[in-house]
Amino acid sequence: MIGKLNHVAIVVPDLPAATALYRDTLGAAVSQPVDLPPHGVTVVFVTLPNTKIELLHPFGEKSPIAGFLEKNPSGGIHHICYEVEDILAARDRMKEQGARVLGDGEPKIGAHDKPVLFLHPKDFCGTLVELEQA
Ligand SMILES: CC(C(=O)O)C(=O)SCCNC(=O)CCNC(=O)[C@H](O)C(C)(C)COP(=O)(O)OP(=O)(O)OC[C@H]1O[C@@H](n2cnc3c(N)ncnc32)[C@H](O)[C@@H]1OP(=O)(O)O
Ligand SMILES: [Co+2]
């Protein structure tokens, strides 16, 4: 059911430093930072030939990544995002299979203006999974 790997997300303590690392040291194409208040994150996208890397930093008081950064002060891989053709069909299938869909179960519009959902890391081998409608 899942398709392409859309992105791998890394939570970072210092977004300008991480941007410089990917742009100058690794030589990648890096976007400007974008604040996404409904998601509680500021995001920088690194575009690679076959996928993207999402550099994340908490935005606002109630960021869902604040706890992760506290536990991983130098940063770390936070989630992996797979594309699906139909987000609502994917959600219903996940529920039928017994996987926990996070939040209220309704898709939100993600960083690429497409609907996204998150699945509990304890149900997917310790990895937080994001599904994005292609
Ligand atoms: C905009 C966008 C986009 O691409 O379009 C984005 O990606 S936005 C990306 C940011 N948005 C999200 O992440 C939304 C979905 N995330 C959430 O709802 C939350 O972050 C949770 C995944 C439920 C975790 O919440 P919180 O850190 O408050 O819970 P917690 O500390 O009680 O964690 C419960 C257990 O899960 C583990 N845990 C927490 N976050 C984890 C992660 N990212 N990867 C693997 N394990 C993780 C904890 O260590 C703990 O395990 P132990 O009990 O064994 O210690
Ligand atoms: Co993401």
From TrEMBL:
Keywords: Cobalt, Isomerase, Metal-binding. Transmembrane segments: none annotated. GO terms for molecular function: metal ion binding; methylmalonyl-CoA epimerase activity. Residues 4-134 form the VOC domain. GO terms for biological process: L-methylmalonyl-CoA metabolic process. Its EC number is 5.1.99.1. It holds the Pfam family Glyoxalase_4. It comes from the Bacteria. It catalyses: (R)-methylmalonyl-CoA = (S)-methylmalonyl-CoA. The keyword Nucleus does not apply. CDD domains: MMCE (cd07249). Belongs to the methylmalonyl-CoA epimerase family. PANTHER family: METHYLMALONYL-COA EPIMERASE, METHYLMALONYL-COA EPIMERASE, MITOCHONDRIAL. NCBIfam families: metmalonyl_epim. This is methylmalonyl-CoA epimerase. It comes from Azospirillum palustre.
